[in-house]
Amino acid sequence: MHEISKTFGASRALNGVCLEVARGEVHALVGQNGCGKSTLVKILCGYHRPDRGGSVLLDGEPVVLPITPAAMRRHGVSVVHQDLGLIPSFTVTENIRLGRFRARRLSRAIDWRSEEELAKASLALLGASIDPSAEVDSLSAFARAEVAIARALQGRPKGGGLVMLDEASGTLPQEPRLHFHLLIRGIALDGGAVLLVSHQLQEVLQHADRVTVMREGEVAAAGLRTSELCEQDLLALIAPGASRPSTSGGGRPRRRHHQTPNAPAEGGADLGAGPSVTVDRLISDTLRGISFTIEPGALVGVTGRPGSGFEELPHLLAGAKRAQAGTLTLEGVTYELKRGPLRALRRASVALVPQARAAEGLALSESVLENLTLPLLSSRGRALFTGARWRRRLAESVIEALHVHPADPNAPVKTLSGGNQQKVLVGKWLSAQPKLLLAHEISEGVDACAKADICAALQQAAASGCAVLLASIDAAELAGLCDRVLVLRDGLIGCELSGHLRPERILAALEGAQAEQVAA
Amino acid sequence: MSTVSESRDVMASHAGWAGVLSVLQRFAVIGVWGTIIALYSALEPGTFDTSGTFQTIFGSQAALVFLALAFLCTVLVGEFVDLSVASILGLCATLLAVLNVTDHVSLPLSCLIAVGAGAAAGALNGLLVVCLSINTIVVTLGMSTLLSGLALAISNLTPISGMSASFGRIALTRLAGLPISFFYGIALALVFAYILGATPLGRHIRFIGANREVSRLAGVSVNRIRFGAFLCAGVLCGVGGVIVAAGLGGFDPSTSTTYLLPTVSAVFLGSAAISPGRFNPLGTIVAVYFLATGIVGLEELGLAGWISDVFYGAALILTVTLTTLLGRRPKAAPLRRGAKASDPLRHFDEAEAGLGATGGAETGERG
């Protein structure tokens, strides 16, 4: 593909990206979250129409954009998405063959026997022994990944085609992963092309021939030979240094990093007295018993690979999702997280800023003012009258503090831009003056200015004695904001980083390398 | 800076227009109502514009007002269409008449039993929909048929009449030329509007209707309020049933289901009046009498009884179509609440919405 750009509204997700994947090679695409990898893949599978001016050539022929499913099939382009895209209540055969069913000649009914054979054949390519009549629901996570990969592999023309794998091996354990790597090598040897989107740099270095690094919608380095690279080189290309002003813009004073975690935040001598927030042996579907404490005024980050359990932590600690076991102690009171004590924790001033803004964060059809004051209605309003003045004042102060635009408390939230909606969401919970703030991807999909406002607000909350837990996969954001970062691995705390945090240290810890190596 | 002030000016003029438009929208239904009255008065001078006609319009809708407000309870918390309200009212009215006339139970006790039955039916709806999360339409459709069947059974398939005339006074006492049941409906709607507009409970109800998960995470007891809405709907139907039976001196159980469609029409039309785009009690009351005016006028023009079905049905479809079309007009971020969990592109879509919208903010701040 050549000179591909993609604009969403006024923000450019891709800016003149060129990418060439040769036949017979495994080409890796790496970069931080939000750098445009997925957008690129989605253009290549026809989901997005790129901006005018770009072109995509398949087997040397230019194709009409956006790419149609028919063109994809003709050239053997297939994709395995990050979340696999399987229909849970359907069988393995149905999932693999959906869209390609062959009907019997006379009755026009689907010939299930031959369908099952075809499904079995594509599973056999992967060496997977999965019952084709099983429902996808009943399969383990890695068996599901195998089904999705098998689906992408069928019908590939001999000696051609392009298979795109968007983080597809993430859920595979060691043994099938080995098989998976053999398989993609097999495709390449066969004359096909493989585009491997991955966060796992080890995998990239070992199994890809060339690698393209993307950064902020542009290609930072194109088609580097992996044989000439080491992990540090790649990390430096992905996140070039801590000097990047990624979290605090506009010359705002950054939080100093050399604070010890126990020291209270700026000018908070009286805050040190408050007892810490303690999480004890938290067990859930993905977490296997983690314990930690957050001091009042501390900003603690949690991160990990998708599936490591860090994504669940905010909801579990807020009591919005039931844990299997574990307790949270806040101001001397211990809460059983098994019961999902959402309302009790809300009363104890625990705030949750969820990732899914439209689904869980804000009621989009309601006004800014209504959304901002919702959490405080019961405590500040009287039973027979909500009161108007405090709500108005609160909304105006949040709008001013976070620079919400337009500055109209009565505008329905859906008329605001994404960044401003996020500010409203953060403001909604900060104005409740929480003792513990749990946030999940607090600045996802938000432009730099809004991000700076949000980060500043978080730091201010911490400075006034709030304990903050920030779950994020954005290493630069964590490095810029947090005092400490917990890196989760397979449901346990893999390592804890403190002191001088740099994005590449966090990334290295994510990749499983020894943190000390990079810290030096 | 100039761009900012320019854009502000543009916005201000937009705001001005929006203000005028919103006032127009607010009172559009009332305006149309007035036009219809004027039209009928011109078409049938001497018949339509008499106090008798107005007494018919405003004095005969007590059942519909109670039903519409009961229906509103559940629609407000986001339960789409409670189909059982009319049958609950019918059951309660029948029960009261049967207990009092056939079984000679004392009036206060029969009233209590009737309202209790309404509450029980509402609670059963709530139990199934809220606690067991069964689909609202399935539950209430089944409940509707079940209860109207029960009403027919206890009345032996015959209309019951012969309740004491003195009891009828609780519904028929005249006040300013109108039966007192009219004022019950108005008072109820005002109380309802106050709760919704001014109290924390009202905001919570609105938010549950707008986004259940957001409300839950904000610490609102979502399920308790949803259950309460069904219970309240049942009680309102019970009280409505008592008043209807009192007014008629009995009840014909076979008529109860004919109330359902007018109820739904009124509530949906009501969402276009007073506070447009929102289901609201005062708008609902306006809509009830608006629809009654339309029908009485047409009947006085000489059209037969079938006209009410045609009118209510057409009104329902028209209003819902109009509100949907009007609701599409603002450029809202694409919302895909119904996106399936298995949709692989779902996350991206949301990210796109976020990214797409961010641009506006950026340019605004830079200017």
List low-pLDDT spans of chain B.
1-12, 329-367
Elements of chain B, N to C (H/E): HHHHHHEHEEHHHHEHHHH
Shape of chain A: globular
Shape of chain B: globular
Mean pLDDT of chain A: 79
Overall tally of structural domains of chain A: 3
**Major sheet: arrangement of strands of chain B:** 1-4
Extended strand count of chain B: 4
The percent range for strand residues of chain B is under 5%
- CATH architecture heading of the largest domain in chain A: 3-Layer(aba) Sandwich
Structural class designation of chain B: mainly alpha
What is the end-to-end distance of chain B?
A: 6 Å
For this entry, what is the oligomeric state of its chains?
heterodimer
Give the CATH architecture of chain B: Orthogonal Bundle
Question: Looking across the biggest beta sheet of chain A, what order are the strands in?
Answer: 6-7-8-3-9-10
- By CATH reckoning, the class of chain B would read Mainly Alpha
* Beta-strand content of chain A: 15-25%
Main pleated sheet of chain B = 2 strands, antiparallel
Keywords:
heterodimer; A: 520 residues; alpha/beta; Rossmann fold; 3 domains; 6-stranded mixed beta sheet; B: 367 residues; mainly alpha; ABC transporter involved in vitamin B12 uptake, BtuC; two-stranded antiparallel sheet; 4 strands; 74% helix; globular; disordered N terminus
What would you say about this model in short?
The complex is a heterodimer of chains A (520) and B (367). Chain A has 520 residues and is of the alpha/beta class.
